[in-house]
Structures are given as structure tokens and as C-alpha cells.
């Protein structure tokens, strides 16, 4: 009797392909960025507004592709309103809890007010930006729009609540 290794099993090949896909989409750009930084770091520092624009537009493209996948998969027509509400309410509770936890922890560590606010806003970001590429690799050939629906709902709640909070902080500064 022969014992199957990971390379003999279809699941083993799928797992390796998914790991390779994730590495190519998420880790490789990071590594390449670190390598090229020595060559272009000074230029990027001088042209910071251009790199910020590219960064923001990249996020817009990821979010657009997520919602487009949802539309393509018919998510918006096949999911009842009550199911969307069941996604939004826990997302609101989670975002609220994380905003409170990041603020509480930053206050406890005696950070200055500007740093506390930065910690709050940065302490829970990147859900959709990193989640969509991972889902596209892990669930290739599946209805990705339906799979990432909870992530899309969370992302929208996060944007809305953080925009509200940022506006509130801005009013207190003015």
C-alpha cells in the first residue's frame, strides 16, 4: 500500500497553487517594492503626491472589482434584504468595538491625541484590499462575489463609520 503525499493528492496541489497565488499577489509586490526602493526611493519622496494618487486609485480599483464581481454573480439580486441587514449589524458592532479598543489601548499607552486618532483609523484597515485578492486565488472558479459579500458589507460599514468619526474629529479641531 502506497501512502499518498501532498503532491499526489488533488487537495495538496490545490493548496500549493493557492499558496503560490497568494504569494504572487500579496508577498511578491511587497518584496519587489523593498528591492526597488533603493533605486526609486528618492524619486518617490520628491513626487509623493503622485504615489499617493496611485495608491488611492489602486484601492478604488480593488473595491470596484469586488462590487463588480458581486454584480456579475448576481449577489445584489439573490440576497434578501434581511440577509444584508444580518451582515451590516454585526459589522457595525465589530467596527465600533475595534474603534473603541484601538482608542482605549492608545489612550492607555498615553499616546498624543493625533497619534490616538491615527491608531484608530489604521488599526483595522485593509480588509477588502487584501481580502479580495486572497479570495480570488483561494476560490478561483467560484462565485467570488457571493463569497466576499460579508467582506464588502464590512468594508462599507467601516468606510461610513470612519468617515463620520473623521468628520466629528475635524469639527472638534476647528
Question: How are the secondary structure elements laid out?
Answer:
Elements lengths: L9 H37 L1 H25 L2 H4 L2 H28 L4 H10 L4 H12 L5 H4 L1 H25 L1
Helix pairs in contact: 1-6, 2-6, 4-5, 4-8, 6-8
What structural category arises from helix and sheet content?
A: mainly alpha
What's the alpha carbon Rg, rounded to whole Å? Answer: 20 Å
Largest sheet: none
Spatial shape: globular
Instruction: Tell me the total number of β-strands.
Output: 0
Concise overview:
It contains eight helices and no strands.
Architecture overview:
There is one protein chain. This protein is mainly alpha-helical. The protein has one domain. Helices cover 83% and strands 0% of the residues. It contains eight helices and no strands. Helix 4 packs across helix 8 (149-173) and helix 6 (127-138) packs antiparallel against helix 8 (149-173). The longest helix has 37 residues, at 10-46. The protein is globular. The relative contact order is 0.11.
Structural descriptors:
174 residues; mainly alpha; 83% helix; disordered N terminus; transmembrane; transmembrane helix
